[in-house]
Design a protein that fits this description.
alpha+beta; 7-stranded mixed sheet; 3 helices; 7 strands; 20% helix
Amino acid sequence: MTPEDVNTLRALEVSLWTTETRFDPALMEQTLDKDFVEFGRSGRRYERAEMIFPADQMQPIDIRLPLPDYSVDLIAPDVALVTYTSDVRYDGTVHCARRSSLWRRVDGSWKLRFHQGTPV
């Protein structure tokens, strides 16, 4: 895994939490793998189509950046596991979770294949 890959994956993870990029349907179409699935912090399963929001649904995301405990591990050629802690604030409460994202390189671009949030 090159330093460029580590930086690219960090930028992609942050883009999932930054209001302007998270609610950009074209960017999310490029970022999420065609077979993407997520198990949310709540335990709910989300399919790819549920995770691409139109810009008119944009809501501010209040998350602590940079992402705490950020780590990248290459687990197979062109497959990376990213882990970190998320501190998201909503409803006047901080909601913390351990996050894991499975990224795979497809035609030279990293695609998010799987994401999971576990409450802490």
